[in-house]
Amino acid sequence: MMMRSPALRDHVATGLLETAAAVLAERGESASMTDIAEAAGVARATLYRYFPNREALRQALYDAAFADLTARVADAGLDTATVPEGLARLTRAFVGAAGKWRALELFHKTPGDARKLDRELIEPMRGLFERGAAEGSFRGDVSVATMIEIYVALLEGAVSRVIRGRLGVEEASSAITAIFLNGVLDSPDR
Fold first, then answer.
1. What are the pLDDT digits (tens) for 7-29?
2. Among the four 38, 50, 115, 155, which has the fewest Cβ within 10 Å?
3. For residue 63, what pLDDT is reported?
4. Hey, what domains does the chain have and what are their CATH numbers?
């Protein structure tokens, strides 16, 4: 039996995960392991060699999506960007990851995952919003918590349209950033 290098094994696993994310986004929970294997162009036994059951596949999908999203947020340079640019970068990170990983539910996990979610995603977002409020970039009559809830609602709405193919990642990111920062009213100086 030929042994595969760890790099090749990781490459194959990544390809299987990306295919699984696309199939699950398209077909939902009704997608079987056979459907995923067929879409990936591998035998079912190959898929099971990498992911011994559906739960192992779902956990690997969650881990890959979370790692991708947290890396995007960490790479966004939120601490050094202006508040508007930081918000644009944060938005691209969230929408880009959601566009890649599609319909995965990232935020329904164990308490340990909730702490990691808070530390790696929520705290950087909260820090950006608090800085925006402190610098006067954001309104003073709306709490940071409320602004974050409104921003997240915009994200969720746009991401659902990206998942359904009604908006592209860049179009959704630009729309969220513009609407959040400027509202939907036309500028009086136009």
1. 667 888 999 998 998 888 778 77
2. 115
3. 85
4. 1-52 (1.10.10.60), 59-182 (1.10.357.10)
